[in-house]
Amino acid sequence: MKKGYWVVAYRRVADEATMENYVTLAVAALGKFGARTLVSPKSVVTAHEAGLQQTTVVVEFDSYEIALAAYESADYKKALAALGSDVERDFRIAEGV
């Protein structure tokens, strides 16, 4: 079974308190799915080529299907709602090789 990954680049975070609240809710929601953070919001990111210098997060799941289910879960939807319009991000779910 191929692993699943969330790859998230934050384009704009207007309010750090909103982000901290989201992280608290998201960690609790994703823990139920065995999520492992591989790159945290505090990690150093160096952009190359057409890349942008943005906060980046990578989360690993045991399968692509679990990654999809975690995103669709009620608890994660609550975390997502906490972001409101204070955060703009590029969010992708990718299947590992």
Topology:
Blueprint: E1 4-13, H1 16-31, E2 36-39, E3 55-61, H2 64-72, H3 74-83, E4 87-95
Antiparallel strand pairs: 1-3, 1-4, 2-3
Structural overview:
- The protein has helices at 16-31, 64-72, 74-83, and strands spanning 4-13, 36-39, 55-61, 87-95.
- The model has no long low-confidence stretch (mean pLDDT 96).
- The protein is of the alpha+beta class.
- The chain has a four-stranded antiparallel beta sheet with strand order 2-3-1-4.
Keyphrases for this structure?
97 residues; alpha+beta; 4-stranded antiparallel beta sheet; 31% strand; globular
Helix run count: 3
Kindly report how far apart the N and C termini lie. Answer: 10 Å
Average pLDDT reading: 96
Q: Strand percentage, roughly?
A: 25-35%
Instruction: Give, in order, the helices and strands.
Output: EHEEHHE
Largest sheet: 4 strands, antiparallel
Weakly predicted, low-confidence segments? none
Q: Approximately how much helix is present in the residues?
A: 25-40%
CA radius of gyration: 13 Å
Which strand order does the major sheet show?
Answer: 2-3-1-4
Tell me the structural class: alpha+beta
Any idea what the shape is? globular
What is the β-strand count?
Answer: 4
